[in-house]
Glutamine-dependent NAD(+) synthetase (Comamonas squillarum), 551 residues
Amino acid sequence: MSHFSIASAQLNFVVGDMPGNARKIIDAAAQAAAQGTQLLLTPELGICGYAAEDLFQRPSFLAACDAAVAQVLEASRQWPDLTVVLGHPQAAQHAAHGRCYNAASVLRAGQVLASYRKQLLPNYREFDETRYFVEGTQTCVFEVAGSRIGLLICEDAWASQPARAAKAAGAQLLAVINASPFQMDKPGHREALLAERTRETGLPLVYAHLVGGQDELVFDGHSFALNADGQVAARAPGFDAHLLTVQVEATATGLQLSGPIAQPGDTNQQLWQALVVAVRDYLGKTGFPGAVLGLSGGIDSALVLAIAVDALGADKVRTVMMPSPYTADISWIDAREMAERLSVAYEEISIAPQFEAFKAALAHDFAGRAEDTTEENLQARIRGTLLMALSNKFGSIVLTTGNKSEMATGYCTLYGDMAGGFAVLRDVPKTRVFELARWRNAHDPYGTGRNPIPERIITRPPSAELRPDQKDQDSLPPYEVLDAIIARYMEQDADIDSIVGAGYPRADVERVVRLIRINEYKRRQAAVGPRLSARGFGRDWRYPITNGFRG
């Protein structure tokens, strides 16, 4: 054929729901076949969802995956002119430690035409693929509509050799199926890197990507197609399920691709969408009916509330203002106003009686000692107890409101403001919190209302309000300095001397690095939250709690 089409099924799967995932793939195949499409690409490990972690080591899990593959294979008989590329784990005979293959099968009309096993297994940051998978060794090239398609899985396309091997085996086009977790600016980076593959090989490429939230990972979609010169030929919208159809035309110089090109949005828009998807899918896939959070009148809780409403809808979000003796009037005024702007349930529960009761109970032991962070932490823990009680009674999950700057330095209270089920801003530094608040006030991407955050919340100096006239910057460097040090040390693995050499005061650098080191025990007990940066305090940060290395 001189002309055919490829559909990239950008789907949102649930890890472990193999029958449900198979149904989504079958529905996408039915839609593609109805459009007259000849080839359907589905995401990496789509049959089981990504990342299934130690489930891959359970024989019963692999058996359930095999049954779901058989379900899709049987359904494919309905569409004899459609070829389906299906990602799934595949048992490896005699492999050590129960490992399997990260595989893809090429299905058509009830037959398995070919199978491919991922060759390059990432084992860095959030990836543990050598823990679960055995490397494949064979190239896979199959024919669709008279054209030869070389199949690659994710990391295989991030290096040169597998793509070159596919071309040497006769491929005229590269099909790449993926599950590549989102981080800031990664969609553009992916396209640039894959453009290198197309220019190296002289082959066009279609990239099918996963979408949705899975614990602390977010997958952004943005599936795309590139022509042989590296130019974008088609692109799917981000952060939503979508079937991207790419037209393929045979020309004298090779295959030429074309299709709709969605715009990806700027960094803050992508971050906002990622946060919304993370909250929506964490609650939706785990079964929580709604969310509750402490609304303090501060910037962090305000941002979390705006994200939660965009993700869940106002009817599924409950807010509680819990003033203490140190809460400023403007805090509850601003909190009340924001709740009204977003039309969420709002109530006020004073913690003054409980605070006095705790101090009275400890008065004998604390006699002769001045008040300090102990009393500050008591207030945070009272609030955490009240929120968790509401969660227990009504079933809603508590969204914590601490940001990455606080998680790094330990400016958060165990069993207090850290208490909850999902840490929305866990990987968002304070400087970015302000940027996102301003961005959301200027945009209304989900139709829940423009300008949801009162301006004073954004402009007033941040404070935990746990003692009189307290300000965050009383005991921390300015946030632009703090966040830059954290990024260099924690995300880029820079050492103290190199950070100082970049122009940051040694005293600040020494202090921040020390705080990062000594607060690992807190982070180990923190709620899971979405990873958005090059490195978050989660599965891609594995440092010992007992640790004498200063760096």
